[in-house]
């Protein structure tokens, strides 16, 4: 290893002070901050919010101080259908209801993984991975499918937001404390040679405490309810004694088995036109397996466009923090010019960013439009879940080049896949390590 000498640092400092351009930049960046100083106004001019294909949606939702973007995005795709089919206005499905059952199931999923790895030392990478974050707000498409299929959905009015769903920090903090303590107890039971029956009985006691904790923090999920509303034409409707499952079947009516997750991961370990899953990634034991088909980016965009052109929005996952402006809602590679600001080349390929930890999926949103010029996509309309005060009434504009570099997943109907692609998806998937970037939770 080579240390830095004082003379080397002195030379660096002298060279910096002799550069008048750097001194001028220093004054601006120190006062205004890095991103504000590097923001490129021309990116907003190019990415105007006008699209040749534009799916009708209502107002955007707001996940507030929580990491529930993946479930907001999924519920938004359902809401779009309901707004049109039942002439609803400003209607939302309950994110708190989905949140409750996801937390409940994630606790059990954690317990089962702790038991499955009980013979390994706590220093093993798998056990350390489990204990680092026993559960969190984020998730994957197939995980939300498991929740919907088991627990249905309800209108937001039936189980509205709570303080702890809108700001989930304390809930996550104390739930993870409990899960780690329970992991100690479960591992001790295994080490002591207790029977499977005794261990499962102990686990059920832990789950009762989790249910109580969630009910106290989020409210009690309804078993039955009435759906009462007025449509846009002021006609009154009421449907009595619904369950979350019957409400889903009657008012959402989406066959979730007809949708597949498509990813673009151009790394050497993931050849295109192959299916993949991730070890220890899930929430519902016995639920839907998390599974992807990896395709090249032209195919990826073609599939998204096909669904949009049929009037259906597209759930997608990306690395939203990369080269995007929150206030103006622009996602473009030239949103900021950091290379010129610092005279440093920050460029990496998409594969390099994935392999070296520079990027992964961090946020899920909904594609609701695309601008196609001369047969080619140029920019995309994005429904976010950060409220109406960002972007254009909560909608963002994503350049086509940004999609190439920082979008990783879409969910589309099987009918848009070729027979060869569908066969590849349905083939036995390659199992990726729990810490693989494609296991990131949005």
Structure in words:
The chain has 17 helices and 14 strands. The strands form 2 sheets. Strands 1, 4, 5, 6, 7, 8, 9, 10, 11, 12, 13 and 14 form a 12-stranded mixed β-sheet that branches. Helix 6 packs across helix 8, helix 6 packs parallel to helix 10 and helix 10 runs antiparallel to helix 11. The mean pLDDT is 97. It starts with 5 loop residues before the first helix and ends in a 10-residue tail after the last strand. By secondary structure, it is α+β, with helices and mostly antiparallel strands.
Based on helices, strands and strand pairing, what is the structural class?
alpha+beta
Task: Give the uncertain stretches in residue-range form.
Answer: none
% residues in beta strands: 15-25%
Main sheet record: 12 strands, mixed
What's the overall geometry? globular
Radius of gyration over C-alpha positions, nearest whole angstrom: 24 Å
Number of contiguous helices: 17
N-to-C span? 38 Å
- Helical content, roughly? 40-55%
Strand tally, please? Answer: 14
Q: Whole-number average pLDDT?
A: 97
Set out the fold topology:
Layout: H1 6-17, H2 20-32, H3 34-38, H4 41-46, E1 53-54, H5 69-85, H6 95-116, H7 125-132, H8 141-151, H9 163-166, H10 169-191, H11 196-218, E2 225-230, E3 236-242, H12 244-252, E4 259-263, E5 274-278, E6 292-294, H13 297-309, E7 314-318, E8 324-325, E9 330-331, H14 338-342, H15 350-355, E10 363-373, E11 376-383, E12 395-399, H16 400-406, E13 407-413, H17 419-426, E14 430-432
Parallel strand pairs: 4-6, 5-14, 9-12
Antiparallel strand pairs: 1-10, 2-3, 4-13, 5-6, 7-10, 7-13, 8-9, 10-11, 11-12
């Amino acid at each position: 290893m080579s240390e830095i000498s004082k003379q080397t640092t002195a030379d660096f400092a002298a060279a910096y002070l002799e550069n008048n351009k750097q001194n001028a930049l220093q004054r601006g960046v120190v006062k205004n901050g890095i991103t504000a100083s590097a923001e490129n106004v021309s990116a907003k001019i190019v990415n105007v919010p006008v699209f040749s294909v534009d799916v009708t949606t209502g107002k955007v939702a707001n996940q507030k101080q929580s990491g529930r973007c993946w479930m907001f995005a999924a519920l938004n795709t359902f809401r779009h259908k309901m707004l049109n089919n039942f002439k609803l206005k400003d209607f939302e499905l309950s994110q708190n209801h989905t949140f409750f059952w996801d937390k409940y199931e994630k606790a059990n999923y954690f317990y089962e993984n702790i038991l499955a790895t009980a013979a390994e030392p706590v220093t093993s990478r798998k056990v350390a991975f489990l204990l680092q974050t026993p559960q969190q707000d984020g998730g994957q498409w197939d995980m939300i499918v498991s929740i919907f299929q088991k627990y249905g959905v309800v209108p937001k009015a039936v189980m509205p937001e709570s303080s702890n769903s809108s700001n989930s920090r304390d809930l996550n903090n104390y739930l993870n404390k409990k899960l780690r303590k329970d992991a100690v107890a479960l591992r001790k039971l295994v080490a002591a040679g207790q029977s499977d029956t005794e261990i499962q009985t102990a686990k059920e006691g832990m789950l009762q405490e989790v249910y109580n904790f969630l009910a106290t923090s989020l409210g009690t999920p309804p078993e039955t309810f009435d759906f009462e509303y007025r449509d846009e034409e002021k006609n009154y409707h009421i449907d009595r004694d619904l369950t979350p499952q019957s409400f889903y079947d009657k008012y959402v009516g989406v066959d979730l088995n007809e949708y597949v997750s498509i990813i673009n991961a151009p790394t050497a370990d993931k050849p295109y036109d192959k299916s993949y899953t991730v070890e220890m990634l899930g929430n519902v034991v016995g639920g839907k397996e998390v599974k992807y088909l990896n395709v090249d980016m032209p195919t990826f965009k073609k599939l998204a466009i096909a669904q949009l052109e049929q009037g259906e929005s597209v759930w997608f996952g990306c690395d939203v923090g990369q080269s995007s402006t929150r206030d103006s809602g622009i996602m473009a590679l030239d949103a900021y010019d950091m290379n010129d600001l610092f005279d440093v080349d920050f460029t990496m390929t998409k594969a390099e960013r994935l392999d070296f930890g520079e990027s992964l999926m961090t946020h899920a949103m909904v594609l609701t439009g695309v601008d196609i010029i001369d047969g080619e996509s140029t920019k995309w309309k994005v429904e976010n879940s950060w409220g109406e005060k960002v972007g254009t009434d909560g909608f963002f504009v994503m350049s086509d080049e940004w999609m190439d570099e920082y979008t990783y997943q879409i969910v589309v109907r099987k009918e848009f896949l070729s027979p060869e692609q569908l066969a590849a998806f349905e083939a036995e998937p390659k199992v990726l390590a729990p810490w693989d970037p494609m296991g990131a939770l949005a």
